[in-house]
Write a structure and sequence with these properties.
The protein is α+β, with helices and mostly antiparallel strands. It is built from four helices and six strands.
């Protein structure tokens, strides 16, 4: 890690992530990518990635398909090498209304202080379906009946 980079902790992650997602609606990861290890392992509700090349490709896809993306960091906490981030992401996809996704991320730091693993947790379909008239209510009724 270069001398000019800050050490990662719950507070610095909050600052870095806030800059990433609040840049005129288009996310910009350029300032945070140096904090990720080249062997980054990333997983969320829809994908599992290994390595910086795949991670950068994923960030580019998200930027390309969203018209407006903002993230509010609700809170962060840290235990040893694990940092937990609770967030609210507002995303506007082409031809669809804005949707708020509520989620959290767990990042793991390696011995060098870089992010070696990131696991994102969120309800992709429920949060998006809530913004589709009539369909959102039908989806929630279905989920309560089958799983509630």
């Amino acid at each position: 890690m270069s001398e000019e980079q800050m050490d990662l902790n719950a507070e610095s992650i909050k600052e870095l992530w806030s800059k990433t997602y609040n840049t005129e609606g288009k996310p910009d990861w350029s300032h945070i990518l140096p904090y990720y290890d080249d062997s980054i392992y990333f997983r969320d509700s829809i994908q599992e990635l290994h390595g910086m090349e795949e991670f950068k490709a994923m960030t580019k896809r998200l930027t390309d398909r969203s018209n407006d993306l903002k993230m509010h960091i609700v809170r962060t906490a840290q235990q040893d090498r694990f940092i937990f981030i609770e967030w609210e992401m507002t995303i506007k996809f082409k031809k669809n209304p804005s949707s708020v996704m509520y989620g959290s991320s767990r990042v793991t730091l390696n011995d060098a202080g870089k992010i070696i693993e990131q696991r994102d947790y969120y309800d992709l379909w429920g949060d998006i379906f809530d913004n589709i008239p009539r369909f959102g209510k039908a989806y929630r009724r279905f989920m309560r009946r089958k799983f509630g």
